[in-house]
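User: Assemble these into one structure.

Assistant: Restating your components, then the assembled model:
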Amino acid sequence: MTDEIEVRKSTLYITGIVLLILVGGFFMLKVENSNSSGNLVDAGNGEAQKITLSMKNYNYYPNTVKVEVGKPVRIYLDSSVVGCYRSFTIRDFGIAKYLKTPNDYVEFTPTKKGTYTFACSMGMGTGKLIVE
Amino acid sequence: MTFKNFVKELNGEGVEGELVKTIFISLTTSFFILGVLYMFKLRYIENFIPKYGFYLFFIILSYALILPSLRHVRAYKEFPCMSGMMIGMTIGMIAGFLPGFFMASTNGMFWGSLFGMSTGILFGIWNGKCCGIMGIMEGMMAGFMGGLMGAMTSIMMFNDNLKLAGVVIFVVSAFILSGLNYLIYSESKQLERKHKDGEFFTIFWSLLLTAITIWLSVFGPRSALLQ
């Protein structure tokens, strides 16, 4: 009889814990809006498509960029991009360069449509380059 | 002395019987203070729940896991060196890692590390002293490492499933702390209880830790990139 009461007491606490977690989780686990957005592509005067990436929430911003196939692409990192994020890589195009100042850039011409990943050399900041 | 006996003891009247109750009281207190602050102040902050809700939720759960272990160790007070070092190291590491991880997610690496190290070293020393200077040293070092590692992990996961990583880390830590409770149970079965903390102990620490965490997360200093 005593055992039954003890089990019930413990069960009551466990039920309480589960309820608290469920109710707390219901109110507190809401999803934040994504920070992905369009792009900052500047087609220019028929020359390179210029893109300037900045930094937001510990990532490149915008982190989804669209470019046209067959046209040269030039990517700059503005002054908000700091630390190892300035070491910019696009593995699929064989690009790996430390862009020391906002005037430094990487340039390449995508010749194939598809989605490619750009990242810092440590892979902490990443984004998508969509070639259309 | 098997795990089955330990589970049975969780329903008993002994020290182990207070573990589940402590989790319940800690969660109740933390959610209560969060609810009160939300009603009067936090709900006026734009995007409070989407921005801070997840991290505060898991940090509250973390405190609810750490405090029962603390109470468990305090009940027996003294342990042999080997177990005492393990106790100091485990609690120091987890009490540094979890707060460091979740605080760094909202405030950046420096403040996450600082907060994680502070809680880790505090709880590491407090628990490690059950076996003397060796446990104190072990707890202090583990708290220091845990705080730094938690914050570092958080920043490195920032663009790679940070929230999922938080859940995984929390679940793993929960298993480790359950293991520690079992270790304390196995090592102390022949010992007599030397100290009894009232429920006020749990309420006080839950209240203090949650209040400091909320204040730091929402109003505290943060890295330039998270401003």
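Chain B touches chain A at residues 10-13, 17, 20-21, 23-24, 27-28, 31, 47, 49-51, 53-54, 56-57, 60-61, 64, 155-156, 158-160, 225-226 (CB under 8 Å).
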